[in-house]
């Protein structure tokens, strides 16, 4: 536990002690050890399978909550809490500190299952399950799932806040709001797990017995396997993109970080325009990869401080076509490939490489063009000093309708007005701090460095 801050270590110990208090049975209350042992073995086995190479679960912890929730619906609260204990304590953890992570996992699950079991018992859920009263069982199970999710969210938020010193996933947002968003994000998947756990409990109490209850896990296992394969494929996509971007950053050090910022700005525009999540992700890829064609441009031209000759300009203006050749075989990029090729086209037809105008320019390229120009103006380069964000936005407005799509410009202005723009500081900022700002307009130099 030495890797955790002192306050986080104390928090983990308090959670573990609170979990120990929940485990002893109340006076005179029997413990159904056979059911506890069967469910505990099932939970540990499912968690072990989720960590195997067959499934390779992307999020190891709490994969099979249906088994834990089935225990909360079937058993007394203290017995249901025991179901989580062996798997949480005995299964391996991937990072240090190992003991603290085991204690945390066990304490968190024990408290969440115990609280869910208490609510389920208090609302008459055990009687509804025993009588196979499906409407009543749904209502009581829903209340238990909400409590289960609430306990997990509060405990997770607490450990994140104490470890990182910030509200969970909230950044500058107040902690209650960040915790509320965490709760809402967790509630939908846990509701699905709760329904599966309720089906297990109803079948367990039916004439078919525990064996029938196990069949509920088969579709859950298949769906989890499919999700794990999707996650693997997505991770491979991310690794491909990361390798390409790193190669560009190594070749052109003055643009280090530019690709990620353009991807972020493209994502902000896409979200502001109401695009669906899948398309937002594709446009983020487009922004990240828009300059990948620079790998085919001589480094001396990319880092040249003086003005470019007409021949040098023509060479640099080939980079969109180089980039398109590099990525056109990557099927998952979709319309991002068109953005790589056309992000230097202008609405009035004066851009390159093909001089497209207006609606001939793909929408993805119009998004990336605005994001690219905005980051180029707000980043310090060897030949230009960073402009303030309001000045850059005003320049985009001035060029809207001639160089840039007014819809995209308006979307970026609204998004930045609401959330602000806080890009990471890159290594090139210090190198070019003393370079005076040029008098040239935003469209001066090719290669996205406007």
TrEMBL record:
Domain called HD: residue spans: 255-377
A Pfam family that the UniProt record links to this protein: HD_5
Classification of source organism: Bacteria, Bacillati, Actinomycetota, Actinomycetes, Kitasatosporales
Entry keyword annotation includes Signal: yes
SUPFAM superfamilies assigned to the protein according to its UniProt record, in alphabetical order: HD-domain/PDEase-like
The protein's name: Putative nucleotidyltransferase with HDIG domain
Signal peptide positions on this chain: 1-29
Keyword Membrane assigned: yes
Ranges annotated as spanning the membrane: 67-91, 103-121, 141-162, 182-204, 210-228
Stretches for region Disordered: 427-450
